[in-house]
Amino acid sequence: MADSQVPWGVEAFQGEVSRPAWKEKPSWYLVATEDHMIPVGAQRMMAKRAGATTVDEAGSHAICVSKPAAVAKIIEDAANGVD
Q1: Cα–Cα distance between 7 and 5 in angstroms, integer?
Q2: Of the four listed, 10, 19, 30, 46, which is most buried by Cβ atoms within 10 Å?
Q3: Which residues, 6 or more positions from 71, have their beta carbon under 8 angstroms from its beta carbon?
Q4: 9 in any annotated domain
Q5: 1 in a structural domain
Q6: Residue 2's pLDDT is what?
Q7: Is 6 within the bounds of a domain?
Q8: Rounded CA gap, 12 and 77, in Å?
């Protein structure tokens, strides 16, 4: 997976967000409980700051690859949870 990812451009650090969507829209966060890149505590802090509904799943930082069914489920739940 690392071989297919391209590095960020420096321009990404210069962008400004005027109205972050997470402040106004419902959000969900899949906590990867076996992530060795972003500690679980940091994931929970980010989710709480965004007011996100959280779901825990045993999986690594690449949870989208290793647990696609869990990712699909949280997307479905999010879609069904929004009017």
Answers
A1: 7
A2: 30
A3: 30, 63, 64
A4: no
A5: no
A6: 62
A7: no
A8: 31
Distance of alpha carbon 70 from alpha carbon 20, whole angstroms: 25
How many domains are contained in the chain? Answer: 1
The percent helix, strand, coil of the chain (3-state, each to 5) is 45, 10, 45
> 68 is written with which tokens?
């696609």
Asked whether residue 10 is domain-assigned, the answer is no
Q: How far apart are CA 39 and CA 31, in angstroms?
A: 10
Q: pTM for the complete prediction?
A: 0.75
Between β-strands 28-32 and 53-57, what pairing exists: parallel, antiparallel or unpaired?
parallel
Residues 43 and 31 sit within 8 Å (Cβ to Cβ): yes
Query: For residue 69, what are the domain limits?
Result: 26-81
